[in-house]
Amino acid sequence: MEALVAIAIGSMTAAGIYLMLRLRTFPVVLGLSMLTYAVNVFIFTSGRLVAGAPAILGAAEVMTDPLPQALVLTAIVISFGMTALVVILALGSYLNAGTDAIDIEKPGEQPETGN
Amino acid sequence: MSLALIAALPFLGALLPGLMIRAGRNTCASVTFSVTALALIGLLLNAPAVMRGEVITQGWDWLPVIGLNVTFMLDGLGLLFATMILGIGLLIIVYARFYLSKDDPMGNFFTYLLLFQGAMVGIVLSDNILLLLVFWELTSLSSFLLIGFWKHLPEGRQGARMALAVTGLGGLAMIGGMLILGQIAGSYNIHEILQQGDAIRSSEYYLPALILILLGAFTKSAQFPFHFWLPHAMAAPTPVSAYLHSATMVKAGLFLMARLWPVLSGTPEWFWLVAGAGLITMVLGAVIALFKDDLKALLAFSTVSHLGLITLLLGLGTEYAATAAVFHIINHATFKAALFMTAGIVDHEAHTRNIRLLGGLRKLMPVTFTIGTIAALSMAGIPFFNGFLSKEMMLEAAHDTGTWFAVIATIGAIFSVAYSLRFIFHTFLGPVRNDYPHHPHDPGFGMWVSPAILAVLVLVIGIFPAQTVGSFVDVVASAVTGETVHMHLALWHGVTPALIMSGIAVAVGIVLLAFQRGLAPFWDNAPRPEAKSIFDAIVESAARGADELTLALHDGAISRYLGIFTVVVVAYGAWAFWGGSFTPGTRAMLPVGPVELIFFVLIMVASIGVVAVHRMRFVSLIVISICGLVVSMTFVRFSAPDLALTQLTVEVVTVILLLLALNYLPKETPRESSPARRIRDGVIALVAGGGVGALAYAILTRDMSLPTIADYHVANSYIGGGGNNVVNVILVDFRGFDTMGEITVLGIGALVIYALVEVILVGPASRRLMNWVPDMAQARDRHPLMMVVATRVALPISLVVGIYIFLRGHNEPGGGFIAGLVVAIALLMQYMASGFAWTQERQKVAYHGVIATGVLIAVVTGLVSMVLGWNFLTSSSVYVEIWPLDKIHLASAAAFDLGVFLTVVGAVMLALASLSRIGVRAGEGVNLTPMDIDPRANLVAKIEEAR
């Protein structure tokens, strides 16, 4: 089981990174989402895989490690906030510039500043 | 009055001028004056104790771990400087009231002035050198604002920038020096450091500390070779020049050298560095001053010269010289402030400060002439004026040091006499001209009263030195030297070598002045390095270098940064792996069942699929949501019901969000990257993915090497947190402070989204949106009957479910986060089914308010426990039974969770509602009824027909 989980984390990471390296905003947003899944599951599994033992007192004999779960729970909500922000940025830059390309064509062009 | 309050008063008062300017310029100036006067009175209340020889120390701990404490100290030296800063500050405020024109923003001016004043008072009253450094940097910043006050003048901006660069760099060096000094002395408190003189001077770090501290002092006090910024700072309004360059900013360096004189002076290094720099500065400044035609430039270089003189005296290292330095600090402040103000009056009245265009003002401006002459004669060192007394002492001290010192000091004195007399002769004497740019006459009382008071002081101190400032100079000199000093100040000491040197200086100075006009062309044509062009070239090359470096590293290709980042992280991981030893883990694996196998296959299919179809954006969105669902199923399988619920609800919200955004984004991604690039990215992704997978496998196949800290949470979850759901108790109790930070971030994120949409709706994006033509077929029935009815029925049910999940959260899976997401989805369904405008009309509470209420509830919950005497966010709980409900658990943590709940609802709704506003701008049309037909659909059909 552990091997399957590890392979799944690895493949989600790989897909996330590949999409993150694309040249348009939308695939990059998708890539970040994939990467978020992978990272959340990774942190979650650092408490090791335990079946049928939720972190609720009195529910079972043994209990899984609740700490990674608490960390991941807020991470999921925050990652929603991050995705929303990135999407709006992508939308704004597309509507403003007329392109959703990620890379800036001519860097360093700044308005002239007087002395 | 407490010393901390004296230092704080100007800062607090700095809030007032900006407000009071609405009540008029007189009110504004009066308020500023009152603040300064109050601080001065508070200071003088402490004066009797200091004059008795006491040292007042007050303060409290701030960051005792690093030795940074808010401690203040008042001794003779501090009293002298604080009196000068506040006293001359008062005169400057009166003068500035009449000097500034109606167009100058006076509120800003007095705010900057008070900020600067507070920083200066802070420096001279600090007992802690780290605190002193804070104030030191504040003077650099606030003087930048003052020097650049006339923002429309390029010289003003350049002068301010140069002053900030030079004094700021010196300040950085000084931080290093002070830290070394504190380390040697074992304390950062000045009164303790002053006891460690021998240890400091014999330390191997003495020289580096000395050099670094002197860099700070020399840049601030414009000593050679850092003198060049001071004349350029003359672009400031004259009240600023008069304040900064007579009594305050440039004296800060002198103050520091005097403050640390007992521990740093008396070594050959100190003598040659300080006395040498002082001597060169004194002569150089005096020579340049003689050939300046701008009155303020002449005074600027004379200031440089006099600062050099005082530095020289401090550098000589004898008690006599130090006393002379103290005395000259007083004298220079009085006559130089008066001179600057005189130059300002001339400029104000004649509309020029160019000496070549002036002359003969004696008859037109008799009052100004009298004041200017008294001050200038003092600067020249003529008997009966206070400058004479301290200059005599300087010559005496130089004579005692050696022949060469005596000769060079006399040369400096000669030029000093020449430029001082030139100020009088070429400005005021001579025939009245008829070609002044503006016909001058004496200004009103308000403008000349300040320099007049100083001129009276010049005369009174000059004639009765012992009776007026004698005992004060003794107290200050005792504070500087650490020994009891009793100096006999007198006008007549008999025919001494110093008197003869003075005589020579006056005689030769007058002759030199006679030849000044003849020598000037030679001086102007003489080749010499121009400090400003060197400075500009250095700044220019630094800026160019930074530009090139930035553009090389930061070329706008974000995909490149991300690629490099990934490669570097993977490389570090590989390095760590091959640098250590690895043995396979031994933890027993769980068996694989058919359900798990299906999950695994789905994840693999979704991962590969999302890459394969990512050009078709809608399809890829569906594929990626498979991943999200399977991840939440995985959470269920491995004992994390809370995570599963959160992931599931977040997934819904995220997909809706992406769909809304995709409506206005291209629906397909073009094929842009070359096959080679795709292969390269694929290799990076596979290597990184393989690494992460291997790492996960390595972790999963071994037990924890250290016992988990979660045992504490499990053991105390019910006892301390009153809840059975350990995950929820961790969130709202054990790590409640983290959660508070996280909901704050979430709220800020939503507000940023709102602000970004505001920006999008006004810029060029807005025009693009208004001309939006749907690029996909639109459903005509945009609010289907079935969906509207279904969501209407579902809303109350969903809300009840939300409340239920919220209430049970402390003991069973649920809680504020999940309940918030559930309720948000229920509300979102209304928007989706019935349209944005229709729903928004029924939405009475602004989502910003919901976010703010949520965060506030969380904070208040924490504060209540503080008020009750516990730590922030300590929770307490009771079980109450409310009929007809079951036993209900009321915990303070539930109040905190309510804050979480509200913030999550507000943030999610604000983010999505903001996106919907873009749709409205794109002409989505406002529906009045919950069900209607999209008018645009007809339009699109007609366009198609016409084609």
Automatic annotation (TrEMBL), chain A:
Keywords: Cell membrane, Membrane, Transmembrane, Transmembrane helix
Highest taxon of source: Bacteria
InterPro entries: CPA3_antiporter_subunitC, NUOK/Mnh_C1-like
Pfam families assigned to the protein according to its UniProt record, in alphabetical order: Oxidored_q2
Major location category of this protein: membrane
Transmembrane residue ranges: 6-23, 35-57, 69-91
Membrane topology: Multi-pass membrane protein
Subcellular location: Cell membrane
PANTHER family hit by this protein: ANTIPORTER SUBUNIT MNHC2-RELATED
Protein family membership: Belongs to the CPA3 antiporters (TC 2.A.63) subunit C family.
Protein name: Na+/H+ antiporter subunit C
Organism field: Pararhodobacter zhoushanensis
Lineage: Bacteria, Pseudomonadati, Pseudomonadota, Alphaproteobacteria, Rhodobacterales
